[in-house]
Amino acid sequence: MEISSQLVKDLRQKTGAGVMDCKAALQEAQGDMEKAIEYLRRKGLATAAKKASRVANDGLVSAYIHAGGKIGVLVEVNCETDFVARTEDFQSFVKNVAMHIAAASPQYIRREEVPPEIIDREKRIYREQALDSGKPERVLDKIVEGKLERFYSEVCLLEQTYVRDPDVTVKDVLDALIAKIGENITIRRFARFQLGEGLPSHS
Q1: The pTM is what?
Q2: Please, what is the average pLDDT of the chain?
Q3: How far apart are CA 193 and CA 180, in angstroms?
Q4: What residue ranges do the domains of the chain occupy?
Q5: pLDDT tens across 97-108, in order?
Q6: Hey, what CATH class is 58-110+156-194 in?
Q7: 104-128: string of b/e by CB count within 10 Å (b at 16+)?
């Protein structure tokens, strides 16, 4: 199938992928833009997985203050070289992650960081809710697993829906950047502060 240069250009603008990758994706998808984006995302995931073992000890610490000084975020994002840390793509990503954290209030970066006792507590609650609503015993495990996946998508930064694009997760955006830049990039840690958080409210 003949792929027009305009279609390749449009896909590049949407994904940041290279010309040849975009052309191959469009050919694979028979010119379907959404399928081509999905193809590139899958390829980006594979690229990211290969680079994940490489040491990322450069990067940036960024701060973001929101809502008139009522919410503040510090985030550290690592890459492999100072050169990448100084690029506009990387700096923009770090800033956007800080803004996302301010808006979405994640508690962890990835699901592996959720303490086992928290997971056990959530499973117990979901099981009791399902039993109370009259669900049969045989489907309880499936219901619990489904609700646990939703829990991860709410509290884990990488699994949250990206606030700037509800069609992707933060991990999708990270993997696309890794595929584009060609270095391992990791969100190492963050701290989110909200004015008055933890203090007793006025009665």
Answers
A1: 0.71
A2: 88
A3: 32
A4: 5-52, 58-110+156-194, 115-154
A5: 999 999 999 999
A6: alpha beta
A7: bebebbebeebeeeeeeebbeebbe
CATH class held by domain 115-154: mainly alpha
Task: Out of 1.10.1200.10, 3.30.505.50, 1.10.150.530, 1.10.8.10, select the CATH number for domain 5-52.
Answer: 1.10.8.10
* DSSP symbols for the chain: ----HHHHHHHHHHH---HHHHHHHHHHTTT-HHHHHHHHHHHHHHHHHHHTTS---EEEEEEEEETTTTEEEEEEEEES-HHHHTSHHHHHHHHHHHHHHHHH--SBSSGGGS-HHHHHHHHHHHHHHHHHTT--GGGHHHHHHHHHHHHHHHHBGGGSBPTT-TTSBHHHHHHHHHHHH-S--EEEEEEEEETTTTSPPP-
The pLDDT tens digits of the residues spanning 152-172 come to 999 999 999 999 999 999 999
Look up residue 147 and give its two tokens: 């609700």
| Amino acid making up residue 184 | N
Q: How confident is the model at residue 53 (pLDDT cuts 50, 70, 90)?
A: low
Single-letter amino acid code for the residue at 92: S
